[in-house]
Design a protein that fits this description.
Length: 67
């Protein structure tokens, strides 16, 4: 699991998960609740690990200004 600070209140959590036997990547925004625990929001995306190379490639293209 990896966390990136989005702003002073929110983090983006990137992690591998499993659901119904499928390996998934979940990229989701987490916020801190009133007890100080990080809880997931609906803001995010989950996709099969099989797509990870394509997602990384697309992000690299965007970073380089190709897209």
């Amino acid at each position: 699991m990896r966390e990136l600070q989005k702003n002073t209140l929110d983090v983006i959590r990137i992690q591998k998960t499993k659901y119904k036997g499928h390996d998934l990547v979940d990229v989701r925004v987490y916020v801190e609740d009133k007890n100080g625990e990080k809880i997931p929001t609906r803001k995010g995306i989950t996709f099969k690990v099989d797509l990870l190379d394509e997602v990384i490639s697309a992000l690299e293209e965007i970073k380089e200004g190709v897209v």
